[in-house]
Amino acid sequence: MSAGRPSEGAGCINWWGFSPARDLISAGPVKHEGKVNILLVGNGDPRHLLKTLAGLQDEDILNVWLFENCMEVVARQMLLLYITLTPHELMGLNEKTEMFLEVFGNSVIRGQTDDTVKRVASQLLLHVSDIPDSDMHPCFNTALLKFRERDELARIFKSWVQPLSSSTPHVSIAKAWDYRVRQHLGTRYDAKRGCFDWDLTMKLYEKGCGVINKHQYFRWRESGLAFELREGVYQNTNPSLLSSRVFNQRGDKVAMQGYWGDIASSPYLAFGIETEDESLLKTRNGQHVKTAQDISFANVQELFQSLSRKQECTTQSDTEDEHQPTNIEHNSVPVSKLTRLKGVSVNFLPLDSLEKMAEKGKYAHFFHIIHFSTSCAHHLGPKIRQIAAPDAVLIVELAKYILDLNKEQEAGFAERVSNMCQEAGFQPCVVANSDDLHAVFQPHKDK
């Protein structure tokens, strides 16, 4: 059983995924090489993107199309990608890693981080407000978005930058978080620490997440603070974790802003529960010496180091620009001046694109790798087969780390995914590095 009400713990918006980062190019039975087109559906964060980029060979070309269910998640994806590609001259490796994790997993952030988010949002606002030109950064292609979606992104970034007016009600993320915890636990709220302990020891630990530290997990469950990497006061609202949810009140639809993401599984899953560095998994007296926070830091830092080796060579015009006056201010540069990765592009898709892609000839049998998150599995259908290349790999995230589900429900979800994929024209395939976190399929040769 779960220590909370079904479906409330995972929330209704994916701010992070429910599985560790994967190199998607290596996830199938055969590793794709050369030019690879990837479609990411509802990932909620850039973990798979970063892990896949880190594994690229110099001659590889990677084109990524990114679909999310709402523009708030698109805005957050752009924010995290901006931090990732900030030139090292402006943000050192340690600072970048800390900044990324703080924005990624904390409901509240330090004042310095809040200032950086505002400056980055200002640059992203300019980027989505401009008409795309030849100098567009290949990892921030918003040209496919509709005008109203670009306008919505602009509104979101503006709300991160500008102080709230007196006519706008202030959203306290502390109260919004507590409201979600109360809704989730119901009458068990007064015994919430016992509920947290149940979910940690009987759920996460039983599923192999022993590196998640009890103190850190409880702190996150109570307040939304997952990564406390530096001493300081964490009291500023992280605006990238706020969104609107529509409720039906007496027949009228009312949008309420608040925190509507995961409050049970934790952001530690993305980068903090797996590592190839055995020293980070050492135990002493049956207890892990390092925590999921430590492993998250090490993994993200390693990914950033890998990406720094893949940046494009500086051109003559770039060198000339270095000697010209710039408007660089405290870790903030125009999007077009962010680090560019050799042979890599990221394209942001419209909200209705999954339904319409199959109708466009340019996407026919186009994608070599397609990844679906748990929250978007309902989009699986015959149209996905039409956009999959003959040798494509379809990867679907399973519900292992959705804590509100029991074992029967978890198995039922996996069975439904398998049935939907086979009805859509895919067949299960066995891979060498298979796990119980994802189901892997390939197009059926007879369909």
The main β sheet shows up as: 7 strands, mixed
Largest sheet, spatial ordering of strands: 9-2-1-10-11-13-12
Question: Would you tell me the structural class of the helices and strands?
Answer: alpha/beta
Beta-strand portion reads: 5-15%
Low-pLDDT ranges: 1-6, 314-328
Shape: globular
Radius of gyration: 21 Å
* Quaternary structure state of the chains depicted: single chain
Give the tally of β-strands.
13
**Separation, N- and C-terminal Cα atoms:** 41 Å
**Series of H and E elements:** EHEHHEHHHHHEEEHEEHHEHEHEHEE
The number of helices is 14
- Report the mean per-residue pLDDT as an integer: 90
Share in helix = 25-40%
Write up this protein.
- The protein is of the alpha/beta class.
- It is built from 14 helices and 13 strands.
- It has helices at residues 47-54, 71-84, 93-105, 111-129, 147-161, 173-185, 192-204, 214-223, 268-271, 292-308, 316-321, 353-356, 382-387, 407-423; strands at residues 35-41, 61-67, 108-109, 236-237, 243-249, 252-258, 283-284, 287-288, 344-348, 367-372, 388-397, 426-428, 438-443.
- A 7-stranded mixed β-sheet has the order 9-2-1-10-11-13-12. It has a two-stranded antiparallel sheet with strand order 3-4.
- Helix 1 (47-54) links the parallel strand 1 and strand 2 (61-67).
- Helix 1 crosses helix 10, helix 4 runs antiparallel to helix 5 (147-161) and helix 7 crosses helix 8 (214-223).
